[in-house]
Task: inverse folding
């Protein structure tokens, strides 16, 4: 991997970490700005490098660097919010894959790619929240409570960020492509080149 590629991945890893510290506390799942970095990483770096940026973020946190919303360390996997971090990894891939595969360029189409990414994050997050509350914390939530606290309560803010990022991506992506020269091929198995 070239130094330029590593620097792009590191930039979005850092943006995700910064987003963790900009938070609004709500029950169980704090609202953060991390999802912004997930949308942007997938859209601007492409699916593979977007995924890699989020994977690096999670691994850095698991080795003990306090980059998560509530610290860091391997024990974080037992926290009810860890599923959202796993969702970031696949969410960035989904966003980048949809945008590249279908050559999305309108605000509306990018919004739907962001939305698919967001739903991916919430799917992983809610499943993990339910399991962690039941088997780790031993304060089980019902399925309704899991959906309410894990999805319905934080979703309005994330939907607003979904729209905001669609506008940013639509404006920035064509301009940034000239500087980054990252070419994601149409086939999902193809390697990105610089």
Result:
């Amino acid at each position: 991997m070239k130094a330029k590629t590593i620097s792009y991945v590191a930039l979005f890893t850092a943006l995700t970490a910064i987003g963790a510290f900009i938070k609004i506390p709500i029950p169980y799942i704090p609202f953060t700005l991390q999802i912004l970095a997930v949308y942007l990483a997938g859209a601007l770096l492409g699916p593979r490098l977007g995924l890699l940026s989020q994977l690096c973020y999670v691994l850095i946190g698991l080795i003990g660097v306090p980059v998560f919303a509530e610290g860091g360390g391997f024990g974080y996997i037992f926290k009810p919010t860890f599923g959202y971090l796993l969702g970031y990894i696949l969410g960035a891939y989904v966003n980048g894959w949809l945008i590249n595969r279908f050559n999305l360029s309108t605000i509306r189409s990018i919004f739907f790619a962001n939305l698919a990414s967001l739903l991916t994050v919430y799917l992983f997050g809610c499943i993990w929240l339910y399991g962690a509350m039941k088997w780790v914390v031993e304060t089980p939530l019902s399925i309704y409570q899991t959906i309410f606290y894990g999805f319905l309560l934080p979703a309005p803010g994330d939907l607003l960020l979904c729209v905001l990022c669609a506008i940013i991506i639509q404006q920035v992506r064509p301009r940034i492509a000239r500087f980054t020269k990252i070419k994601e091929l149409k086939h999902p198995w193809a390697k990105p080149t610089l």
